[in-house]
Amino acid sequence: MRLLLLARVAKRGTPMMGTDRSKLSSSTLLILFVLLGMPLAARCDTLEDSARSLADKIAAVVTARGDMACEIRNISTLELDDVIRIDHALDAELQGRCVRIRANGSEAASVVVNLSENMKGFLWTAEIHQANTNQEVLQVAPFSSRSPAKALPAILNSERFWDGPQQILDAGVIAASNGDQLVILLTPDAVFIQNMSRHSETKIDVPLGIPSSTLRDPTATLNLNAGNIIWAGHGQRYCTVSLETLTFVSCGDIEGGAGYLSPVSLVGLFAHAPTSCTKNIGSPWFATGPGDDAQSDTLWLEVHHDLGTMVTSNHVNFPGPILAIHRGQNDPSNTIIVRNVQTGNYEAYRLSISCVR
Amino acid sequence: MRVQNSERVTAIDPRQWPSAPMRAAAFARMASLVFDRLIKLDEHGTPQPALAISWQHDAAAKRWQFLIRKGVKFSDGPALTPEAAALALQQLLGNDFDVSATSDSVVIQADRSMPDFLSTLAAGRYFIFHTGDDGSLTGTGPFRVGEWPKNNGPLKIVFVSNESCWAGRPFVDKIELTMGVDFEQQANAIAFGQADVVELPASQVRRAANRGVRTASSDPIELFALQFDASRPAMQDQRIRQAISLAIDRSSIAEVILQKQGVAAGSLLPNWISGYAHLFPVVTDLPHAKELLAAAGREVSHPMALTLVYDSGDAEARAIAERVAVNLREAGIVTQISGQAADMKNPAADVRLVRYRLAAPDPGLALAGILNALSEALTSTETPEQAYAAERAPIDAFRVIPLVHVTESYGLSPQVRDWMPPRWGGWRLEDVWLGPPQAAAGATP
After folding, report:
1. Which CATH code fits B37-131?
2. What pLDDT, on a 0 to 100 scale, did the predictor assign at position A317?
């Protein structure tokens, strides 16, 4: 059986377009559900088990002889490799039930498998159309087969507060004395002050000496906690800008410099998390996959100890590679700079860490 | 923290719970500042310990026993005891339940099976309260009421932090909640820095964002739908009801009127709650709608007329009703729209535009709530199979026509940090903190 995989990824609020019943041959719809958590004769513990169970239901319904055209639509948070696993399991089980599948347009039956989910778990549906009948079967798969759904000590929450085509190295938000919301951006050669309330922007050149071709340079950072002075630092060099006069002030060199670790070369970066989150588990580190800068990154917290590494938070997905992670100086938040692989824009996120009570 | 709200309450009393879902949601937000429940829900909607640390039930799920957390005090000092919890719950659950206390537990006995009882206790009015000698209510929550609105004064409740809260002291010292503020005023307040948290109607979210306001939205948690009056002769023909459904352009309602804060709906529950909403197609088919009307004896040359009523206090409902009227006119139905108070009955109304707030993220409970509100026959919704069948019945018969699912949105000041409410809306103000305003004297760009 060949299943067509649609690379449609579910996003919250995505309209789910079901089959237009009004135009299909009429018949009674038979819905078979298997609920996660209910006592079952045979519990499905893996995605493959659930896929085989769904395939059995499909095979029991398809009475037409001949080919069956099948399609899988992923409208859940299942990753592509999981979808492929499900596809293979369905394929194998249906062939094993002597239902031969070829997609050549003359199939006697068609099956659309929707990989959906709700808050409690995965819920898969199969819409079966054959001759004059429409039937549906449903199958539940446990979340645990994908990733642990157990409670974690910390929750990561990201909030995008800026995006645009400019290459940025750091960003932050402060409030002016009159209440105007200011977004401060650090680019390789300037500090931009954007007034979101008045829709205006001021550019102040700062000679930090950052190579413009650098794509990942997390040592360039902003400090917005010095009152009317904005600090921009790169390695051992720093420059200051006056928020009062909107002018460049001075540059200088400091010993040591701001030493943030690159998320490219190392897995971890020390995370600024509330103490109450970490007191029983140790110091958490941000971790991300070792993808290149053409792939989207995912971030989570890990704790490293003698017995191994423990994931302590949910995963937060970003729409592109993470270019920089900056810890807030006086507040327990972190700023993430990302380049969106689809739009090419740079995006700034505020990432907060809270404890699960 | 300065919070503004459109709803007004005269008392935060779980015993006086509003029946209207929208009002009940506002009430629950305020009550959650002062009171706790036995159970709370985590991010997956799974029951977690709160004032009860563990629970068990008999095989029939009629008798439930909850072990009460020790060391918890009400904000006015008395300890939380199983007796106190039982007393509160008995008043809230009513005479259909027998609530008693043991030395360390609350026991709740019902005459019917309640497999979803945890989800029931984790939502709605089931807060644990203590009645003081003066009749006032106190709770174990992160805040307590410091000031109640004075006569002829602004409608402002001041909540102060509960220093001895069992779950930890909240980050902010106090919350000033101003009630009865209309949405326009709230939008201006957040834009001009006079509030930290305000409500944003779905249709105003984009405008607020364009003004530089931070916004935060839940998953779709409200439903706009058309409900027909089956006693009206014109609405007794299913072909007419189906034609109405086919004539409505739901996508325009979601994209334009609600500014993308809504999702076109073919089902009563959104997919993130049910998981099967994708099986309910969203179909607009004007030619087929006209065919159905013709088959029902309603020619375009002799358009039929119907009366559509909506809540006169809901500006978004009015906008949606007007759009529905435009769509129906194209199909050959002349629609007179009429605004009226939400709790009034209009004998001349053929169809009502209803707005329903889902009471719980649990699919069975959420669906039961909607079906009850729509006066649909209540069948079991405990399993997805049952829920799907129960949801499909009124939709297939076109007794109710879902239109859009809508998010709940808030405007946040730049100082607000760690705004992380549940997916189903509401707030967790005990987890929110305020960053310092970065004072910068002099010129601003």
Report:
1. 3.90.76.10
2. 82
Mean pLDDT of chain B: 89
pLDDT of residue A330: 54
Q: Determine which of A6, A16, A38 to mutate to test the interface with B (most B C-beta atoms within 10 Å).
A: A16
User: CATH code at A193?
Assistant: 2.40.10
Rounded distance, CA B186 to CA A352, Å? 26
Q: Are residues A11 and A112 in the same domain?
A: yes
What is the residue extent of each domain of chain B? 1-35+141-218+408-445, 37-131, 222-406
Q: In the predicted model, is pLDDT for residue B267 greater than 90?
A: yes
**Sequence-distant (≥ 6) Cβ neighbours of residue A325 within 8 angstroms:** A218, A260, A263, A269, A286, A334, A335, A336, A337, A351
Q: pLDDT higher for A265 or B416?
A: B416
Answer whether B1-35+141-218+408-445 and B37-131 agree in fold.
Answer: no
pTM of the model: 0.69
Q: What is the CATH number of domain B1-35+141-218+408-445?
A: 3.40.190.10
**Do A237 and A268 share a domain, yes or no?**
no
Q: Tell me the nearest-neighbour CA distance from A258 into chain B, angstroms.
A: 23
**Residue A145 pLDDT greater than 70, yes or no:** no
Domain limit, last residue, from A253, A286, A307: A253
Looking up residue A63, the CATH number of its domain turns out to be 3.40.50
Helices B315-331 and B238-247, axial angle in degrees (round to 10):
110
- CA B425, CA B217: separation in Å to the nearest integer? 8
Chain B residues with CB inside 8 Å of A330's CB?
Answer: 436
pLDDT at A153 over 90: no
Residues of A in contact with B417 (CB under 8 A): 331, 333, 352
Residues A201 and A136 grouped into a single domain: no
Cβ neighbours of A10 (radius 10 Å): 19
Domain B222-406, what fold? Dipeptide-binding Protein; domain 3 (3.10.105)
pLDDT of the residue at B53: 94
Burial B203-238 (b: 16+ CB within 10 A, else e): bbbeebbebbbbbbbbbbbbbbbbbbbeeeebbebe
Residue B196 CB neighbour total at 10 angstroms? 23
> In chain B, pLDDT over 90 holds for what percent of residues?
60
CA distance A88 to A65: 22
Q: Which pLDDT tens digit goes with each residue over B209-258?
A: 888 888 888 889 999 999 998 888 878 999 999 999 999 999 999 999 99
Rounded-to-integer distance, Cα B266 and Cα B278, Å: 8
Same domain, A297 and A206: no
Return the axis-axis angle of helices B384-396 and B363-373, rounded to nearest 10°.
Answer: 30
First vs last Cα of chain B: how many Å apart? Answer: 27
Q: Which domain holds residue A187?
A: 167-253
- Enumerate the residues of chain A whose CB falls inside 8 A of the CB of residue B445: 182, 193-195, 198, 200-202, 246
Find the CB nearest A118 among B214, B274, B419: B274
pLDDT tens-digit series, residues A61-102: 887 766 777 888 888 888 777 888 888 888 888 874 434 444
Q: Are residues A79 and A181 in the same domain?
A: no
